[in-house]
TrEMBL record, chain A:
<dbReference type="InterPro" id="IPR023332">
    <property type="entry name" value="Proteasome_alpha-type"/>
</dbReference>
<dbReference type="InterPro" id="IPR000426">
    <property type="entry name" value="Proteasome_asu_N"/>
</dbReference>
<dbReference type="GO" id="GO:0005737">
    <property type="term" value="C:cytoplasm"/>
</dbReference>
<dbReference type="GO" id="GO:0006511">
    <property type="term" value="P:ubiquitin-dependent protein catabolic process"/>
</dbReference>
<dbReference type="GO" id="GO:0019773">
    <property type="term" value="C:proteasome core complex, alpha-subunit complex"/>
</dbReference>
<keyword id="KW-0963">Cytoplasm</keyword>
<feature type="region of interest" description="Disordered">
    <location>
        <begin position="249"/>
        <end position="279"/>
    </location>
</feature>
<dbReference type="GO" id="GO:0005634">
    <property type="term" value="C:nucleus"/>
</dbReference>
<keyword id="KW-0647">Proteasome</keyword>
TrEMBL record, chain B:
<keyword id="KW-0378">Hydrolase</keyword>
<keyword id="KW-0963">Cytoplasm</keyword>
<keyword id="KW-0647">Proteasome</keyword>
<keyword id="KW-0865">Zymogen</keyword>
<keyword id="KW-0539">Nucleus</keyword>
<dbReference type="InterPro" id="IPR029055">
    <property type="entry name" value="Ntn_hydrolases_N"/>
</dbReference>
<comment type="function">
    <text>Component of the proteasome, a multicatalytic proteinase complex which is characterized by its ability to cleave peptides with Arg, Phe, Tyr, Leu, and Glu adjacent to the leaving group at neutral or slightly basic pH. The proteasome has an ATP-dependent proteolytic activity.</text>
</comment>
<keyword id="KW-0645">Protease</keyword>
<dbReference type="GO" id="GO:0005737">
    <property type="term" value="C:cytoplasm"/>
</dbReference>
Length: 279, 233
């Protein structure tokens, strides 16, 4: 790497002569190898999905969650260093609680993203700390409807229709771009999300994985949790929760089938090409 | 006398409404706020007293907090002005930081937080009313102890005791502007008529969604007629 030996990468708060902050760039590198994580902002809610490689047969299926509930209406998925993610989530929960205390209202998604962006940014300023080794995808819904934000280690955050980070982000992004997210419903979205996770997994095919998927919904018919509230309760009617098991399993089954069929077609096509050459 | 809001004795909690310091300026008051079809209307008398002396006969007890959230103040003039100033500061900051104006519920919540945590030091009865993007017109009452109550209309201050019956009889949901203003005006006329600590003029502020606040001023004795007798149902 060009910077090795220059000394400009040893500390936060030190710029290199060409105006870069190497510590932040290294943190971004840490995320690039993290698990593929995506967010889809649909018409009637938001979906978070994460590819979890099974690193050991000893791990209980469905354990070690990468997507957390921060407030009843907000979920955050982190990709990168797990402990950094846990700390980030804790801070987000504190922000959500303090907002409730101060304003008797559920925190708007844009406001939480802003607070957390500022928090991440503060960790790029001082020599005593290092930037977060995580990219966080914030999903939630408020009075303005569904919201999706992605916060990077530099503190940069943007609002998205669809966001992807981690190892398979390039493949995932090009798949997300094909979707019409302003018309897509949650029920359609979970199938797309599962498919995208399978497509993005392509590069490290032999490794076993499971899909972790949550959504933010207001639909009492499909929600696991009771979508009800009583007077005086501080809640905007949206729930962040795991996608119901049957729906997720169905989506994963279909996704697997779709990806396998596509592979077979590709193989057939290659076969035909070869035959042509033989002729 | 110990300067406290409530005293617990053998026969219950006694709340001394008149525990102001000697010479402290008091808003012995009639204030109210109502929801109507297009928003909210706030109303107040204009009398400020120090003991028996009327310190100001044209007081403005209707105080603006944000573009579309106002409050009615009763109790100690100094305390309620200070609280309103603090809340105004917080809500201005909120709008700058979050890029949208605070909801009326948020405004009421900040008023309540201050009134509740400082209940031993304050004499403040505040009505918060306003309109916001999502819920339209709303009215909240924060009485002496710092509790928070939302309602379709609320009346407060020493003069309000005299108009509970009037308001209960003549209240209608979703009145139009004319009906709403008449309701507030006639109610405050009665409060001023019966309450010695209320008087002067009637001030009113009308808040409609997406419109600038409108101020109105009425004289309580002008065209005074007794409220029409209602037949028992």
């Amino acid at each position: 790497m060009t910077s090795i030996g220059t000394g400009y990468d040893l500390s936060n708060s030190v710029f290199s002569p060409d105006g870069r902050n190497f510590q932040v760039e290294y943190a971004q590198k840490a995320v690039e190898n993290g698990p593929t994580t995506i967010g889809l902002r649909c018409k009637d809610g938001v979906i978070l999905a994460c590819e979890k490689l099974i690193t050991s047969k000893l791990l209980v299926p469905g354990s070690n969650k990468r997507i957390s509930t921060v407030d009843r209406h907000i979920g955050i998925a982190t990709s990168g260093l797990i402990p950094d993610g846990k700390h980030f989530i804790n801070r987000a929960r504190d922000e959500a609680i303090s907002w409730r205390r101060n304003f008797k209202d559920s925190v708007p998604i844009a406001s939480l993203a802003d607070r957390m962006g500022s928090y991440a940014q503060a960790y790029t300023l001082y020599s005593s700390v290092r930037p977060f080794g995580v990219t966080a995808i914030v999903a939630g819904a408020d009075n303005d409807g569904p919201g999706l934000y992605m916060i990077e280690p530099s503190g940069l955050y943007w609002g998205y229709f669809g966001a992807a980070t981690g190892k398979g982000r390039q493949a995932a992004k090009s798949e997300i771009e094909k979707l019409n997210l302003s018309e897509l419903t949650l029920l359609q979205g979970i199938k797309e999300a599962a498919r995208i996770i399978y497509v993005a997994h392509d590069d490290n095919k032999d490794k076993e994985f499971e899909i972790e998927m949550t959504w933010v919904t207001k639909d009492a018919k499909t929600a696991n949790a009771a979508v009800t509230g009583s007077r005086g309760m501080i809640w905007n009617g949206w729930v962040h929760e795991e996608v119901p098991k049957e729906l997720l399993e169905e989506a994963a089954r279909e996704a697997k089938k779709a990806v396998e069929e596509e592979d077979e077609e590709d193989d057939d096509a290659k076969g035909e090409e070869k035959m042509d050459e033989d002729l | 006398m110990v300067n406290r809001t409530g005293n617990l004795t053998e026969d219950g909690i006694h709340v001394d409404m008149e525990h102001l310091k000697k010479g402290e300026v008091n808003l012995g008051t009639s204030i109210m706020a109502i929801q109507f079809a297009d928003g909210v209307i706030l109303g107040a008398d204009s009398r400020t007293t120090t003991g028996a002396y009327i310190a100001n006969r044209v007081t403005d007890k209707l105080t603006q907090i944000t573009d579309s959230i106002w409050c009615c103040r009763s109790g100690s003039a100094a305390d309620t002005q200070a609280v309103a100033d603090i809340v105004r500061y917080h809500l201005n900051l909120f709008e700058i930081q979050n890029g949208h104006p605070p909801s009326v519920a948020t405004a009421a919540s900040i008023f309540q937080e201050i009134c509740y945590t400082n209940k031993d030091a304050l004499t403040a009865g505040i009505i918060v009313a306003g309109v916001d993007r999502h819920k339209g017109g709303q009215v909240y009452n924060i009485p002496l102890g710092g509790s928070l109550h939302q309602s379709k209309y609320t009346i407060s201050g020493s003069g309000s005791s005299y108009i509970y019956g009037f308001c209960d009889s003549y209240w209608k949901d979703d009145m139009n502007l004319e009906e709403g203003m008449k309701f507030v005006k006639e109610a405050l006329k009665e409060a001023i008529k019966w309450d010695g600590s209320s008087g002067g003029v009637i001030r009113m502020v009308v808040l409609k969604k997406g419109k600038k606040p409108e101020r109105h001023l009425f004289l309580p004795d002008e065209d005074y007629v007794d409220p029409p007798k209602k037949q028992a149902e």
